[in-house]
Amino acid sequence: MQLAEITGDSGTSSFDPAAIQADGGCFMLVRNAADEAVACGALRRLTSGVAELKRMYVREPGNGIGRKLLHALEQQARWLGYRQLWLETRRVNLRAIKFYLAQGYRIRENYGRYRGNPQAVCFEKVLE
């Protein structure tokens, strides 16, 4: 299922590839044995100790790829020196909310451009 089918918005208007390519960011792509892209995710620097998780997507959820990708992104964030990861998803994206809660993320106050947005729910996780 595509993001636009869940939330009514593809999210492309709020995506800045330059922010991912900047110092302290990264992009991960997961390919299957047929070399097809099946999942992706990115990190974007927010502050010296906090990165934002962006563009987390798995083509076919439920097979563990999303969890493995998230753990790889968390490991990369630690390696880059981040102590926390923050992220935002839409309240209507119940599958994502359930996933992040199951991975140890907790709901936090909306931050940045999501402040005051009743459709947004933000999460954080302290990286140990």
How would you write the strand order of the largest sheet?
Answer: 1-2-3-4-6-5
How many domain units? 1
Tell me the span between the first and last alpha carbons. 32 Å
User: Mind telling me the C-alpha Rg?
Assistant: 14 Å
What string, H for helix and E for strand, traces the elements in order?
Answer: HHEEEHEHEE
Number of helices: 4
**Taking all residues together, what is the mean pLDDT?**
88
Structural class: alpha+beta
**Overall body shape:** globular
Total strands: the figure is 6
* Helicity range: 25-40%
CATH architecture: 3-Layer(aba) Sandwich
How much of the sequence lies in strands comes to 25-35%
CATH topology: Aminopeptidase
CATH class: Alpha Beta
Let me know the CATH homologous superfamily. Answer: Gcn5-related N-acetyltransferase (GNAT)
Poorly predicted regions: none
Report on the biggest sheet.
6 strands, mixed
Kindly describe this structure.
With 128 residues, the chain is an alpha+beta fold. The protein has one domain: Gcn5-related N-acetyltransferase (GNAT) (Aminopeptidase). 27% of the residues lie in helices and 32% in strands. The protein has 4 helices and 6 strands, in the order H-H-E-E-E-H-E-H-E-E. A 6-stranded mixed β-sheet has the order 1-2-3-4-6-5. The N and C termini lie far apart (32 Å). The model has no long low-confidence stretch (mean pLDDT 88). InterPro entries: Acyl_CoA_acyltransferase, Bact_Acetyltransf, GNAT_dom. Pfam families: Acetyltransf_1 (PF00583). It comes from Serratia marcescens. This is GNAT family N-acetyltransferase. GO terms for molecular function: acyltransferase activity.
